[in-house]
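Quick note —
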Amino acid sequence: MGRRIAKLAMRATGLAMIVFGAMWALQGLGVLTWPADSFMLAQREWAMYGGITAGLGLFMLWGSRRLDS
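Predicted structure written out below.
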């Protein structure tokens, strides 16, 4: 039961990190301009932070699959 909860938590956190990381990266690159008053718009460091966050989210999804074995 504990392993199942850990896997579910890792998957949910990983998916959230991918979604938010992609959003931050797109805002940092100036592709996504919503919300209009965001301090992240066209700020290259936020593109980097978003890419790192999304990558960590992918790693968490991969790690959750490794719990199966």
